[in-house]
Amino acid sequence: AARGRPPPADSSLSRYLAGLPDGLDSHRHCEMHGAALRLALARHALDDDDELPEAARIGLALLDAADPQAPWIAEAPARAVLAALYDRRLRDLAAWDELWAAIARSRFTDSFLGFAMLRERATLARACARLWNDYHRGTTLELEPRDHALAIELRYPDGLLDALAHAEALQMVGVALQLGGHPHVEIVERVADSTRLRATIVVDPEHV
Predict the structure, then answer these.
(1) Which of 162, 197, 4, 171 is nearest to 86 (CA)?
(2) Cβ-based neighbours of 23, under 8 Å, separated by 6 or more
(3) What is the pLDDT of residues 77-129, one digit of tens each?
(4) For 128-154, how does the pLDDT look when each residue is reduced to its tens digit (9 = 90+)?
């Protein structure tokens, strides 16, 4: 196939690559399970290889070469694929959040977690942290129950996770709350830099 083009300068992929200290070779010890990539690509295929930026093509090649039963790949190339998917298929943050909410629902179903267990926010916090670790290596998600809320802290090496990646963690926690019987949730106090995301998800007191 023809060599992929560089991404447009104003694209999410360009911004993501610019934030990595060593491009796609950054933080090679950090990995992401390919199941989420496959779910995302099943909904929004990236099949125009001649037009796809080279960084995303590298990530897709790694996914294709991964063990079908345990498709772990380096997180930076995986995030490049997802950034390209956003740029080329969605370009809408609400649609992006919904994609990750759908992936979160699939993960909770596959993990056989009883939804009744998620009614206790301390149990829910542990379940979300465990689920994140089931799909990621080299990053850390911690949750702290508070009055009518959950405080979230996601830590990662410099530049590895951007705002698009943060949606994965935030939507997972939001979906967990909803499955646990708290339909009204809101993300507040969201602050992020190149190594950490902090946020609070508030539960409507009427539903606590």
Answers:
(1) 162
(2) 17, 55, 76
(3) 999 999 999 999 998 999 999 999 999 888 877 765 555 566 677 888 888 89
(4) 898 898 899 999 999 999 888 899 999
CB 4 within 8 A of CB 80: no
Q: Across-strand partners of 73?
A: 32
CA dihedral for 31, 186, 86, 164, sign (positive or negative)? negative
| Alpha-helix residue ranges (DSSP H) falling in 44-187 | 54-65, 75-85, 93-110, 121-135, 163-179
Structure tokens at 32: 């992401």
Instruction: Please list the residues that pair with 143 across neighbouring strands.
Output: 152
Cα angle 132, 137, 139 (rounded to 5 degrees) comes to 70
State how far Cα 157 lies from the chain centre.
15
Tokens 């992020």 found at: 192
Q: Is residue 10 within 8 Å of 61, Cβ to Cβ?
A: no
Matching residue, tokens 């491009």: 23
